[in-house]
Amino acid sequence: MATIPWLADVLRAEGVQVVEHGDWRNYMRPGSFDPIGVLWHHTAASTSSPQNPHPGLSVVINGRPDLPGPLAQALVDYNGVFHVISAGRCNHAGRSGGSGPIPVGDGNTMMVGWEIDYNGVSQEMSPAQYWASVKATAAVLRRLGRGAEFARGHKETSTTGKIDPAFIDLNAMRADVAAHLAGSGGVSGTAYGYGDSQHFTAVNTGGTLTNFSWSPSTGVIRPDWGGAALAGRTVGYVHEGLQHVFARGADDTLRHWFQSGGNPPGLDDWDTAGLVKSAPAGFPYGSQQHVFFRNPQGRLEHRFYDTSGHHLNGGVWGDIPFVGNPVAFVHRDQQHVFARTASGGLAHWYWWPGIDPGHDDWGVTSGVASDPTGFSYRGQQHHVFFRNTAGNLEHRFFDDPSGTVNGGVWPGGGFEGNPHAFVHRDQQHVFARRPGGDLAHWYWWPGIDAGHDDWGVRGVVAGDPAGLSVPGQHHVFFRTGDGSLAHRFFIDDTGHIGADNWGGGIAA
């Protein structure tokens, strides 16, 4: 029987507050356990509160007269604290009738369960419970190598009419999990998801930031977030309910916008006056927001803000000079940054809890002719792509189980500029632009060789594309010759490619 003894560690790495109960790694029900997803419940116990945050805890640990414990792998209390109870099979799911990618079968075998401690009749989930559950779900799905569609509510899988978790739009909650996976899993960038909206941020022809977005309720909107004068490309991600966007000012100072809901954006500089010589890269990590950039000495400068202590920290990672723009992403509990050296080598910095930042080159000492791009894949590998000196797409990846670096050239012909890579479900996608303005798209998933196509986009791509994964779709955005933002998206269920133009005036 499989177990998940890593549960507490991955939750803490995601910034979730954890309390471990008893010998939880060995406390479980007999029977098979091979989880593929996460199932959400509410306890239907007494009303929880800040003063009585977990009235259902004892029952979830010990069970009821009609159902022996443990009744879930973890309980989420009113304050958002995760009480970890079991690393193995629990009596929480019953039989699954099938929902989304979760098949019909034994739910206790297939699902990791959260019991969110609220009564579900006169009480809704607290905000702290909601965001802790989103982050914890993303952490477990990332470790399992699954997307947000593998998170379900008990009322979706139940064959006996369960209503839990009550008072929650499960599609919206899954979208927040997907956004968190995107931000923490390497898809932070020019395009990112926020709630049910898709965002693309760019410097406009007036030198300020346009935050393009689309949602089902608003359509396309293009608010100007100011911050002039700006240069280069942006990076954005979502952390703890806020969207964060970073860009380089023309005065070499970082511009950082932060915004939630209908509020106007805030703007600060993270103590970077005169230090920023490249486009920034960054990601959320646990309770922290991170950003990296090239400093005036050509070294990798790092800043991060910790929301738990409200402290801004940072410094320089190593003594490796580089050119161009870095890319940064999270793999498991690890932080990774890649860039290219002046001689065309690959520069790679890494850090995880318990070590100082280190660096290597993955054996690539020449041939890198673009900014790299990369991502974490299914919790087992991390990948990087770049244009080589022959103009083709070069690929390297580190495989955790074997501890080896692998890779080669993906067929599909030459391109120019910088590629952008991201993960959609179990698929790897890379977009770039051809010299004639065609869209270059490479793709791979388990069981196939790498393929390529152009999504029918020919002769109109004038800037480096940026991609985005959302539930059920993957997207690409690019600047056209007139400076407007063109958009294509692939709908998984139908195989249809949609197209529109979001307008605006984007700087080159």
TrEMBL record:
GO biological process, one term: peptidoglycan catabolic process
Molecular function as annotated in GO: N-acetylmuramoyl-L-alanine amidase activity
InterPro entries: Amidase/PGRP_sf (IPR036505), Amidase_domain (IPR002502), DUF346 (IPR007132)
Protein name (database record): Repeat uncharacterized protein DUF346
All residue ranges annotated as the N-acetylmuramoyl-L-alanine amidase domain in the record: 24-166
Superkingdom of the source species: Bacteria
